[in-house]
Amino acid sequence: MQTNRITFPYFLGFLGFLGRKMLLLLLLGLPFSAAEAQTLVFETPEQDFETITEGESLVRTFTYVNQGEKPLLVAEIRTTCGCTLVEWDKNPLPPQGRSQIKVRFESQNKVGKQHKVISVLSNDPQNPIQKIALHGIVLPKG
User: Fold this and answer.
1) Between the CA of residue 51 and those of 42, 57, 109, 112, 136, what are the distances in Å?
2) Is 91 exposed, middle or buried (0-12, 13-18, 19+ CB in 10 A)?
3) Confidence of residue 135 (pLDDT cuts 50, 70, 90)
């Protein structure tokens, strides 16, 4: 008695055909889905505070925009030093919305050239971790 069954090589060939079709559909659809996603864009990702005197503190604001079509969430912000403090709105930012990250730099015991990097973690699928920076020179008291 003969049974009707799909042979293993034929099945793999069929999966290969489906795989190629799915890959093509995925690649063709990628630009559309990426454009529809949330997109974090900083107006000025790097700021120079020029020169301050040791012991002074300063505040700079980094403005960002959600250029995507879905809500953007800045989930976490990491600094490289305890001398750099950040504040931001933790609510989702609607499409085309603007918000700010407030960065406070405390220059106590920080004489010389300074370069503080801040990592911004968001749900932007193309760039989930973006870096902003604050730099300048701290002169000694005196």
Assistant:
1) 24, 12, 15, 10, 6
2) exposed
3) very high
| pLDDT on residue 15 | 47
As given in the structure block, the two tokens for residue 20 are: 């190629």
Residue 30 lies in domain: 1-36
Q: Indicate whether 83 and 124 sit together in one domain.
A: yes
* Mean pLDDT to the nearest integer, 12-25: 44
Residue 12 has a pLDDT of: 47
For the chain, the straight-line distance linking the first and the last C-alpha, in angstroms and rounded, comes to 101
Give the residue ranges of DSSP H helices in the chain: 8-36
Q: What is the pLDDT of residues 3-18, one digit of tens each?
A: 555 444 544 454 454 4
Q: Which CATH number does the domain housing residue 79 bear? A: 2.60.40.10
CA–CA gap between residue 124 and residue 35 (Å, rounded): 11
